[in-house]
Amino acid sequence: MKSLDLLTPGWDKAQLEKETQRVFEICDGCRRCFNLCPSFNTLLDRIDRVDSDVAKLTAADREQVADECYYCKLCFNHCPYTPPHQYEIDFPRLMVAWKKQLVAERGARWRDRLLIRTDLIGTLSSRFAGLVNRALTTRVVRVLMERVLGVHRDRQVLPFAAETFPTWWRRRAARPTTGTDRPNGKVALFSGCLINYQATDVGKATVQVLEKNGVDVVVPEHRCCGMPSFDLGDTAAMAQAALANLKTLEPWLEQGYDVVAPVPSCSLMLKREYPSLVPGAAMAGLAERTFDICEYLIRLKKAGRLATDFVRRPGRIAYQVPCHLRDQNIGFKSKELMELAGAEVEVIERCSGHDGTWSAKTEFFPLSMGIAKKAVREVGAAQAQVVASDCPLAALQLDQAGASAGAAAATRHPIQILRDAYGLPA
Question: pTM surpassing 0.85?
Answer without folding.
Answer: yes
